[in-house]
Design brief:
Distance between the termini: 44 Å
Low-confidence stretches: none
Structural class: alpha/beta
Radius of gyration: 27 Å
Helix content: 25-40%
Strand order of the largest sheet: 5-4-3-6-7-14
Order of helices and strands: EHHEEHEEHHEEEEEEEEHEHEH
Largest sheet: 6 strands, mixed
Shape: elongated
């Protein structure tokens, strides 16, 4: 048996003690004391094992490479949403659609790093994607799309060495901006390790302003452009760079202003996947709150009937 309390147990103990004191000072009814105990048990959400969980497993490794430079905070996705907010929603949809795969996450700004190595724990991926934030303006050194190449190669090679027969799917996600005056290097050396995927571009040609979190004022402020009389800095998508990367990798490029644009490609990817159901070592648990809820309900009815008789 395991407990999954709704309200933390420590807090619920304090609440229960306070109710006990009130009951003992007022009604002193045993039924009321029993009700408090039953409520405590319901809150604890006791569960019992109910077999093992069946999980979907397949032959796919999915690598997300996500741009986390300041420009991904530009507010021109689906109207005036932040690009990164759109990225997070779209990535979660992909994870849901490709359930059963192993997932990995690389983010890049000044440097590239593997945030999550390949894992079948999709909840870990959801959590990692949720906490992605662009690098702060204080530490930013300009955007370069060359930064993640070596890290992507390292990740794909590790997947290949572990199992050469697995499908390797890459989702490269960026607005395509280069602001550090570097020249875009070729991604072609990665092509032979990739079976499918997409390059997803975020942003618009008209661009969007960006905000940063002021830690002292505890609020978001507009990023200003010193080269343009300190007007709001504007970031614009650079599809030329993104299309070049897609061409190097042999993948489709999709300009993302809504999630539905990638649905057909995801269907194509899913058609290549071999899924199978497997029993995992994780136990499935069944909620037994009703064992306490039924007598609580009956006690409430009985207590209400007694109250009517006494009036």
């Amino acid at each position: 048996m395991r407990a999954f309390p709704i309200i933390p147990t420590e807090i619920m103990i304090v609440i229960s003690i306070l109710f006990f004191i009130v009951v003992l000072k007022t009604t002193k009814k045993k039924t009321h004391i029993l009700m408090i105990l039953l409520l405590f048990c319901i809150n604890e959400r006791f569960m019992i094992p109910n077999g093992t969980v069946k999980t979907v497993s397949n032959n796919v490794d999915v690598l997300f490479v996500i741009d986390s430079t300041i420009s991904m905070n530009a507010e021109d996705y689906n109207g005036n949403e932040k690009r990164l907010n759109g990225v997070k929603k779209d990535c979660k949809q992909i994870i849901e659609e490709l359930n059963g795969a192993r997932f990995s996450l690389i983010t890049f700004n000044n440097t590239a790093k593997i945030m999550i190595p390949y894992t079948k724990d999709s909840s870990m991926m959801y959590d990692a994607i949720d906490i992605i934030e662009p690098i702060t303006e204080l530490y930013a050194r300009g955007s370069s799309l060359n930064t993640p190449i070596d890290t992507i190669k390292e990740s794909l090679n590790s997947s290949y060495k572990k199992d050469p027969d697995r499908l390797r799917i890459l989702f490269f996600i960026s607005d395509g901006e280069i602001t550090d005056e570097s020249k875009l290097n070729s991604y072609a050396s990665l092509k032979n390790r990739i079976d499918d995927g997409m390059v997803l571009g975020y942003g618009t040609t008209t661009g969007g302003s960006m905000k940063y979190k002021d830690l002292y004022a505890e609020e978001e402020k507009d990023i200003l452009d010193p080269e343009n009389h300190y007007e709001k800095a504007i970031s614009k998508i650079d599809e030329k760079n993104l299309k070049k990367i897609a061409s190097d990798l042999g993948l489709n490029y999709i300009h993302m202003d809504k999630s539905s644009k990638m649905n057909q490609k995801i269907k194509t990817i899913k058609s290549k996947i071999k899924n199978e159901m497997k029993s995992s070592n994780k136990k499935n648990y069944e909620d037994i709150y009703y064992i306490f809820a039924i007598p609580l309900f009956l006690l409430i009815l009985w207590d209400a009937k007694q109250a009517r008789r006494n009036t």
